[in-house]
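HUMAN: Quick job: go over this next protein and say how the chain folds.
***
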Amino acid sequence: MTVPRQRSAPVRPTPSASSPRTSSQRVLGRDWRLAAVFIAPTLLLVAGLILVPIVSSVFTSATERHGAETVFVGLDNYLALIDDAVFHKGVLNSFVFTAYAEIFKVILGLIAAMMLHHMRRGRTVVAGVILLPWVMPTVVTAFTWRSLFDPIFGSVNVLLTDSGIGPALAAIGLVDEWPAEWLSDPALAMPAVILVNVWKGIPFFTVTFLAGLKAIDSGLHEAAVVDGASPWQRFVHITLPGLRNIMIVTVLLSSIWTFNNFDLIWLMTQGGPGDATAPYVMVAYSKAIQQLQLGAGAAVTLVMLPIIGVLVVILVRMMRRGDLPGTGDTGRGRLTPAQRRALPWVVVVGSVLVLVWASPHIVWKAALVLGVFVVLSVAVGRVVSVLAARGNRTAARWVSGTGTGIALVGLLGFVLAPLYWMTVTAFKSDDQIVARTDDLWPTPWSTEQFTNLFTGRAFGTWYVNTVLVSVASTVIALVCAALAGYALARLKFRGSDSFTVTILLTYVMPGALLFIPLYQMMSGIGLNDSLWSLVLAYPTFTLPFATWLLVGYFKSIPADLEEAALVDGCTRFGAFIRIVLPLAKPGLLAVALFTLTNAWNEFLFAFVFITKDDYKTLPVGMQSMIFGDVVPQGQLAAASLLISIPVAVMYGFGQRFLTEGLTAGAVKG
């Protein structure tokens, strides 16, 4: 009997071995042609909307407007800043605002993350609630807190007076007099806007630190417990070192955003009273847009570039560490282990000394408030540690649970109180708001504010404009970022590392450096007072982030899946469409969510580029509803509720994809 011989399946060559490399491939990389096609849209947008405008801003800063003519003045605009007291005050305000905000956000965010990390039930729900201030539009945040701080119609003074806390604050000197004039007192205006920035920023720190806590190997804590380490020792020697890198990246990124903040301060105080809260960005806006001296305004933004540049370089090095071959130990050999451990403390001590000099009237108050939180947290931890060491684990768990519960209630109250105030104010009648009746519960509930909002106003037009601009800019960012992110993650071509660094640099580049040259550009091509100006400008802050996030996410997808498709005869582009994009759905949805909400909330560019009511977006339109001292509290609350609902719904449905996309993208990338 003859056994038939089986034929072996034909062996198909792998894509890399299918043909010898050409000379251009040896020089430019194996996939340079496809990479050029994938990267071209992002490269054009980044170069045309970020790099070229910054270079243009340098030339603008050397000019000055004399009547209808613009003349070259060299370094005169920079030299004038040496004796410019308004500029000096703006820089000092930016530093004070950033330093205090970051200190509070780090400590309170870490405490909140530790509480959530040890929760056994309801962690997802609580984390979702805590995330609300971060996803709320800045214009909603500003007007809600502005309403709360109002000495006549707000509830902060009423609640603090009724509880006895307000007079106690005055008794110990935290406020000079009671009732307090929160936004009109030069001594209280800066602490008030810092408080609001902390309220909005704590969720970002909490979620980021919580992701870092989850990444710490639980076996380290278990081994430390076996060795007899106390909770405080485990926190100092395991938790903090495990969070070091993510903490540095988070603080640097938040510092860049906070230092260049414009919209929150403008909407709350417009830099007042006097110039007590005006940051350097507002000084640049005043010179360039209000005084029509573009050169002087550009000089203000560019003179701060070295400070921002140092933060950006450190941030880029931290974000790229371990991401590319040979970068894992970059710079480590220059510092000894002891120096690396001491460096953060040197920075902290130096910053505190500068704060003591720059804001002696605030520093002791901030230290007192912060000390209360730290002392209470340490005291509870110490009691739990002592009880556990004595073998009384039931009492230790009871003390820990009680302390955590009280702290959690306080945190949720701090987070939700402004949102509750916004909601109930939206359903009050004008008579209830003026008469101050039933502050915390409308009686009866009324839709008067919503009716007035759509009567005789362009609110509906603003809403449509915001939807159109947000969707269009999101589509542009998503398509370009998906192509460029895949090329940087998968394709082999010369210059990929440099382009990745460029993306990171543009990602953290503040809008304060761009609004003046982009304003010039849009004016030059006739797009001012047009929605197209916003559609073109918004990718400057959405596209770099989207690309960076997707680079990390595409790298988390196993390359074997694509290689199998290529072996089966699929083209590289076909593998990208059929294999990679479906697997990258969480990352794509996370990017779409971020870019859409950032475009939905954007204020600075829309405020500078648009002046006609017919083209305003919601944040700028709501700001224009205020006429001098006449503030329509009820209509602003109703508008805030309507602008917030879409964002809250999107984050509610996309929270799972957001977490998965950030974990695989931002953390791994």
About this structure: The first strand starts at residue 63 and ends at 66. Residues 1-18, 322-333, 663-669 have pLDDT under 50 and may be disordered. The chain has 32 helices and two strands. The beta strands are 63-66, 69-72.
